């Protein structure tokens, strides 16, 4: 029954900021939880909240079939599981990895008799256990494993399964975070432009946030153009017009005493695409220049 799924007993390895947040949601939901952390002191508060604290990672792994890991990086997964018997275990790895590391880890787990699901967390710790915050976790690898544990895994945050390829959760995770860094870079440049002026950054912030939200749906048109191969489809502001505007951005940066180093790489790609004769296109052609 759903109730049985919700009360699945599980083990969590790694009680950093994220692991601790995850642990609290399972404890609050009444799941029997065994935890282990390299630095035992980090488990003390959770023990007071009802977690069973194992003396070793191997003991924690032996305690349950479902094992969730949330460690710093892929190398720490090796260190933590070195002595553990993974036979018959359902391993869910929420540690940030590259797609290649996730695929290798899936094979590594299979060789040790475990089933494997990789996860990429699209949330920061305060979003965990707060459904309205919109955080979720990408999962990839065994679909059967995902379906079996989806109720338990859905307690800390939403779940989005992205395919049998164990590397896909990490790939989606890194893709979205890469886009986020592009957004942060743009916002950094915008704040730099007004830094020395009598403009309150707190006044610019809501304008910036609203503008980024208004522009974000453009990714749907990009996807549509990539699928059709027609980069002129639905174009509103063509590449030729946009490249013609770039000197304005660079001159403004210079006048404001701001380095153009965040803008330049993208503008250079736009210029290269234009030089290939793609002036009537959208910005989508830049993607083809990036793919080696
Ligand atoms: N926190 C965040 O904002 C992001 C949000 C998106 C997902 N990431 C990823 O989640 C993984 C864990 O991140 P975290 O925030 O919990 O990180 P820390 O607070 O630094 O805790 C790290 C835990 O890993 C343990 N650990 C590190 N190295 C080893 C090792 N060699 N052997 C055993 N355990 C290790 C560490 O143990 P300790 O320092 O307390 O002894 C913590 O439990 C991560 O992949 C993020 O990219 C978080």
UniProtKB/TrEMBL annotation:
One Pfam family recorded for the sequence: RedAm-like_C
Q: Does the record bear Nucleotide-binding in its keywords? A: no
Sorted alphabetically, which Gene3D superfamilies does this protein's record hold? N-(1-d-carboxylethyl)-l-norvaline Dehydrogenase, domain 2, NAD(P)-binding Rossmann-like Domain
Q: Which SUPFAM superfamilies match?
A: 6-phosphogluconate dehydrogenase C-terminal domain-like, NAD(P)-binding Rossmann-fold domains
Query: What are the residue boundaries of the 6-phosphogluconate dehydrogenase NADP-binding domain, all occurrences included?
Result: 10-152
Describe the location of the NADPH-dependent reductive aminase-like C-terminal domain by residue ranges. 165-290
Keyword terms of this UniProt record: Oxidoreductase
Q: Does the keyword Lipid biosynthesis apply?
A: no
**GO MF annotations, alphabetized:** oxidoreductase activity
EC id: 1.1.-.-
Tell me which family the UniProt entry assigns to this protein: Belongs to the HIBADH-related family.
Name this polypeptide is given: NAD(P)-dependent oxidoreductase
């Amino acid at each position: 029954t759903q109730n049985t799924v919700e009360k699945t007993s599980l083990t969590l390895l790694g009680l950093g900021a994220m692991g601790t947040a995850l642990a609290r949601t399972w404890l609050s939901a009444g799941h029997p939880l065994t935890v282990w952390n390299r630095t035992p002191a980090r488990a003390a508060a959770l023990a007071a909240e009802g977690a069973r604290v194992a003396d070793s990672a191997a003991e924690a792994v032996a305690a349950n079939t479902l094992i969730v890991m949330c460690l710093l990086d892929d190398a720490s997964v090796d260190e933590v599981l070195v002595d553990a018997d993974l036979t018959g275990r359902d391993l869910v790895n929420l540690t940030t990895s590259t797609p290649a590391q996730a695929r290798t880890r899936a094979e590594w787990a299979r060789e040790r008799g475990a089933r494997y699901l990789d996860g990429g967390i699209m949330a920061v710790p305060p979003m965990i256990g707060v459904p309205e915050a919109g955080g979720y976790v990408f999962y990839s690898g065994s679909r059967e494993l995902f379906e079996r544990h989806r109720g338990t895994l859905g307690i800390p945050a939403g779940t989005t399964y992205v395919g049998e390829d164990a590397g896909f959760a990490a790939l989606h995770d890194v893709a979205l975070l890469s886009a986020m860094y592009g957004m942060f870079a743009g916002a950094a440049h915008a704040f730099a432009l007004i830094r020395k002026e009598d403009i309150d950054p707190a006044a610019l912030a809501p304008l910036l946030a609203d503008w980024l939200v208004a522009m974000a749906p453009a990714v749907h048109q990009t996807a549509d153009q990539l699928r059709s191969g027609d980069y002129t489809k639905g174009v509103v502001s063509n590449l030729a017009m946009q490249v013609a505007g770039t000197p304005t951005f660079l001159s403004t940066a210079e006048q404001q005493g701001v380095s153009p180093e965040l803008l330049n790489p993208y503008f250079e790609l736009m210029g290269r695409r234009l030089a290939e004769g793609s002036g009537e296109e959208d910005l989508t052609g830049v993607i083809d220049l990036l793919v080696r």
